[in-house]
């Protein structure tokens, strides 16, 4: 299953908290890219308030597990939209 995931920074989050976890977040992104779970680097809004990624997972439970493993999880809310892939024709 493919999901377009929008991650938004929670209101009141200190910029320093987010910046301190960016190296870990970038490393997790790279691992997901290498493993074929993530299709491309995150697309980030110019004001850095939101980002988008496409994730390939077996089911929604796996998607939820990925959220929990994201280094910025404490500071982000997620919205996922199931998107069609070639198997869904």
Structural summary, described in words:
- The chain is of the alpha+beta class.
- It has a single domain (2-88), classed as Alpha-Beta Plaits (2-Layer Sandwich).
- The protein is 35% helix and 28% strand.
- The chain has 2 helices and 4 strands, in the order E-H-E-E-H-E.
- It has helices spanning 15-35, 60-69; strands spanning 2-9, 43-44, 50-56, 76-83.
- The protein has a 4-stranded antiparallel β-sheet with strand order 2-3-1-4, with no helix packed on it.
- A hairpin with a 5-residue loop joins strand 2 and strand 3.
- It starts with a strand and ends in a 6-residue tail after the last strand.
Large-scale geometry? globular
The helix/strand series, from N terminus to C terminus, equals EHEEHE
Structural class: alpha+beta
Overall pLDDT score: 92
How big a fraction of the residues is strand?
25-35%
The biggest sheet amounts to: 4 strands, antiparallel
* CATH architecture term: 2-Layer Sandwich
Tally of domains: 1
The separation of the N and C termini measures 13 Å
CATH topology term: Alpha-Beta Plaits
Helix content: 25-40%
Query: Total number of β-strand segments?
Result: 4
Structure, briefly:
The protein is α+β, with helices and mostly antiparallel strands. The protein has helices at residues 15-35, 60-69; strands spanning 2-9, 43-44, 50-56, 76-83.
Write the topology of this structure.
Layout: E1 2-9, H1 15-35, E2 43-44, E3 50-56, H2 60-69, E4 76-83
Antiparallel strand pairs: 1-3, 1-4, 2-3
